[in-house]
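Title: Request for sanity check on Response regulator prediction

Description:
We are preparing a figure and want to confirm that the structure record we downloaded matches what your pipeline produces today. Could someone re-run it with the sequence below and paste the raw structure tokens into this thread? We only need the token string, no images.
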Amino acid sequence: MAEAKPRVLVVDDDPDLLDLVQRSLSAYGFDVQTHTSALGVSNIVRASEPDFVLIDVNFPALKGDKVVGLARQYAPPGTRFILYSASDEAKLRSLAIASGADGYISKSVQGAELAQKLHAMRLKPRPASPNRNPSPVES
């Protein structure tokens, strides 16, 4: 029996970026769902039970780093929350620590490199408690 495709929810208000990420991750064996707003993410996480949630931090209504804490309450225990942003690394690291995210990835990372980082993260066990020392997602 074939192993299930890793499920990824990508949350960003840029439809072009969502399309690019969806096409590229799908080509590397991921089942990708997208959402264009920080609002409603908790409901989607509860319904779709993704393995990863890649979420931008810059939304008009509710910042992505705030959504992590809210959505985690509805996520299965193994779901990894990753801040995915064009912000500089120091800011991303700080937001990841404050939000309890499992890591962060720059939006400059796409395609095969993004898929490789997610596959590598999937193989690592998730800490039982929120990560207080998140780092860039490495391959």
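Thanks, this matches our download. DSSP finds five helices and five strands in the chain.
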